[in-house]
């Protein structure tokens, strides 16, 4: 996978995410996040120290990127069907 040097524009604030996630989440959202976390664990177990801050940051980044990809694909599908 080709890495991009372009930094994503920050369009969301942590407080906003926390507020929204308290009231807007589905069991499907939680299941997808768990699937990503479990796949991440299988891939990196033993390579990264599970208790390290770096491990957690990598895990959170994987889940965040999964959400970004999901959003991009949903938007493309919406545009294609309209």
Describe the structure.
It contains three helices and no strands. With 82 residues, the protein is mainly α. It has a domain at 48-82. The mean pLDDT is 85. 70% of the residues lie in helices and 0% in strands.
Tally of extended strands?
0
Stretches with pLDDT under 50, minimum 5 residues:
none
Q: For the report, how would you describe the main beta sheet?
A: none
Helix-strand category? mainly alpha
Number of helices: 3
Net shape: globular
Radius of gyration: 15 Å
Strand percent estimate: under 5%
Tell me the series of helices and strands, N- to C-terminal.
HHH
Termini separation: 31 Å
Overall mean pLDDT: 85
- State the helicity in percent bands: 55-70%
Key terms for this structure?
single chain, 70% helix, 82 residues, mainly alpha
Write the layout of secondary structure elements.
Blueprint: H1 14-23, H2 27-44, H3 53-81
Helix pairs in contact: 2-3
In short:
By secondary structure, the chain is mostly helical. It contains 3 helices and no strands.
